[in-house]
Amino acid sequence: xxxxxxxxxxxxxxxxxxxxxxxxxxxxxxxxxxxxxxxxxxxxxxxxxxxxxxxxxxxxxxxxxxxxxxxxxxxxxxxxxxxxxxxxxxxxxxxxxxxxxxxxxxxxxxxxxxxxxxxxxxxxxxxxxxxxxxxxxxxxxxxxxxxxxxxxxxxxxxxxxxxxxxxxxxxx
Length: 172
Ligand code: HEM
Hints:
By secondary structure, the chain is α+β, with helices and mostly antiparallel strands. Helix content is 53%, strand content 14%. The chain has 2 domains: 3-61; 65-170, H-NOX domain. A hairpin with a 3-residue loop joins β1 (118-124) and β2 (128-134). The longest helix has 20 residues, at 63-82. It binds protoporphyrin IX containing FE.
């Protein structure tokens, strides 16, 4: 998985809990001191999960709280800064979500070893969007926090829930 996810976590933990907590998270995950994460480097899924468990321990958060905090930070601060163009192209959460499969496909094309999640869209009426998640990583649980974060970014009240391998998003 791309190092960009770890970079985002580093930024979040350092800003909200302090640099010491980030160091503690890495120590808890038994990540060697010389290990360096960049936006483009490849990071093993087990390493990412280990770091998340480390952060949860260091910052006294449940995994659920951490995924929510990560989703909010990614969608309201980190991604709008690093991947600005995608946010400039979309005027609403709905537009960005409908472009998300394309975004993941395109932005990982040039990155070696990237294996982006894929999304299939299904509408039930014009207010309920079902996003079917397809990835061997089984990280569907990360989606609600990320999508609620998009709602905050675009100042929209979205209701999000996971149903099996899909996420139901209700627009106002
Ligand atoms: C413009 C905003 C976004 C960008 C640029 C982006 C980009 C990325 C990148 C680069 C990865 C790593 C892929 C890899 O290593 O192969 C990733 C993973 C992931 N993204 Fe996004 N993402 C964005 C928003 C979102 C949102 C809003 C969601 C929720 C629906 C989402 C869901 C996921 C999930 C669940 C993963 C984990 C990898 C997996 O499940 O296979 N992303 N994203």
